[in-house]
Amino acid sequence: MRHFILSTLLPVAAFAQSGPEAGAHEVPFASAGNVIELAIENTSSIPQSPVTVSAATLPAWLMLEPRESALGDLPGRTEKTARFTFAVDRTAPVNSDYTVVFTVSGNQGQAWSKTVSIRIAPPESFELFQNYPNPFNPTTSIAYQLPHESRVRLVIYDLLGKEVSTLVNGHRSAGYHQETWDASGAASGLYVYRMTARSEEGKEWVQTRAMMVLR
Length: 215
Fold this sequence. Notes:
Blueprint: E1 3-10, E2 17-20, E3 25-27, E4 34-42, E5 48-57, E6 62-65, E7 68-74, E8 79-88, E9 97-105, E10 111-120, E11 127-128, E12 139-146, E13 150-157, E14 163-172, E15 175-182, E16 189-199, E17 204-213
Parallel strand pairs: 1-4, 2-10, 3-10
Antiparallel strand pairs: 4-8, 5-7, 5-9, 6-8, 9-10, 11-12, 12-15, 13-14, 13-16, 16-17
């Protein structure tokens, strides 16, 4: 969870657009309960009423609550705070900067904006997830996460140890990934999928899970 406190000054009777915050705020991978607080200050002696703060642009993988905050009256030379909480879906791209733009609206149609830059940190560990659905017929999804860019090999075997299908054999970036196996040509029964990942630093990680094809 991360808590950001930012400020926006509202000059009345003029349009002002603030630039991005200096640097991106790092947010934990697949996290919830993160907080953004925007301090809205009326730098004029002229009151603003009502004042609302709303999210203008959001990445699809960022869930923000609420989408709009009504601050009501904002007398001159005073400040109020709009508070937003957000969660980040595990599908969010990591190690890249993204922006969330908030719009602040005044009582005479004025609009100011505040841009918040965030960067999603990579997961802290390797993990191979249970396939879904399971049992399945004929397709299933296999997901995994990587803390570093790695060379990945994801292979499906039958119970005799025979290789049935290779879903991945190459480099994958840090973050969350998902592959699909079409078992249309496979017989009903239990199968094993095994993932080996080797980071550029040479660290290797291996995990195996079982799944069921059910006709």
